[in-house]
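ARCHIVE CARD
CATEGORY: sequence design from structure
SOURCE FIELD: tokenized fold
FIELD CONTENT:
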């Protein structure tokens, strides 16, 4: 476990060990950090684990805060959180969204949404928005998902305590002038990442073979990348190049990007596997 992972695990243990008289909320966590947090909480108690939810301000968010419900809160109808529960559980997310208003809504987790809108002068990217906000001196852990809406606007999820500062200080993104307002996203709003459907041809469904087929690298380079623990499968660091992957697995390689494995759709004349892939762009 890396030093950063140890800090996340220690924070999870700290929040999970508190008396449970109030809602406890972490900073925004990456999917990998959420997995580390989840494992650490699972080692405290089954009840604490079941009271753990992850929420990023809307449905489908990737960067989310960990939220522990207090012991007096009724979570009896929530789908159970078990050690092998998928990290992104639609059932638990829906329960959280539908239940938290009874306990104060946004006051529980402190997450709000800001809308950043450009003039339309130029197209603005995810990197433009993120870079401009971070240049204000804001730590990345205080920012959730950045969700571009079109070529010149985005919804960005942040902790409410820093929203006024961003609204007053952020006046440009890239070279374009912007306006910033705090808003409530439309009902049913979902943070969707743009993907590109591609096909890959790999010798097998080994991790290194799939990486070499999807990204511009040789299989030997892919193997080395995995051995150096620069690859994640389902948001967990993976160091085994020969691990078998399959439909639904989310794979990321540092410096190259991320993709979700789709279905095997056939075999080439040379016996290689043809598989669909959704690449995040």
């Amino acid at each position: 476990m890396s030093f950063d992972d140890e800090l996340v695990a220690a924070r999870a243990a700290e929040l999970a060990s508190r008396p449970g008289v109030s809602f406890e909320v972490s900073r925004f966590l990456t999917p990998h950090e959420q997995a580390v947090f989840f494992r650490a909480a699972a080692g405290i108690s089954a009840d604490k684990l079941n009271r753990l939810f992850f929420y990023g301000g809307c449905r489908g968010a990737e960067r989310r805060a960990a939220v522990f419900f207090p012991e007096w809160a009724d979570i009896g109808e929530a789908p159970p959180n078990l050690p092998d529960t998928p990290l992104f559980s639609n059932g638990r997310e829906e329960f959280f969204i539908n239940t938290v208003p009874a306990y104060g809504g946004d006051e529980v987790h402190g997450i709000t949404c800001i809308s950043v809108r450009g003039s339309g002068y130029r197209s603005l990217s995810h990197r433009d928005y993120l870079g401009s906000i971070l240049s204000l001196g804001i730590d990345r852990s205080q920012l959730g998902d950045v969700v571009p809406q079109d070529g010149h606007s985005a919804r960005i999820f942040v902790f409410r305590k820093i929203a006024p500062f961003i609204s007053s200080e952020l006046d440009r993104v890239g070279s374009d002038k912007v306006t910033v307002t705090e808003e409530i996203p439309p009902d049913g709003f979902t943070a969707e990442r743009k993907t590109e459907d591609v096909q890959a041809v790999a010798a097998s469904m080994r991790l290194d073979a799939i990486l070499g087929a999807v990204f511009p690298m040789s299989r030997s380079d892919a193997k080395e990348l995995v051995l150096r623990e620069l690859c994640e499968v389902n948001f967990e660091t993976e160091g085994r190049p020969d691990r078998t992957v399959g439909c639904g697995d989310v794979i990321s390689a540092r410096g190259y990007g991320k993709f979700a494995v789709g279905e095997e759709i056939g075999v080439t004349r040379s016996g290689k596997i043809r598989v669909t892939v959704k690449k995040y762009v």
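CARD ANNOTATION: The chain has three domains: 3-103, 111-183, 195-280. The CA atoms of residues 90 and 105 lie 19 Å apart.
SHELF: design records, drawer C
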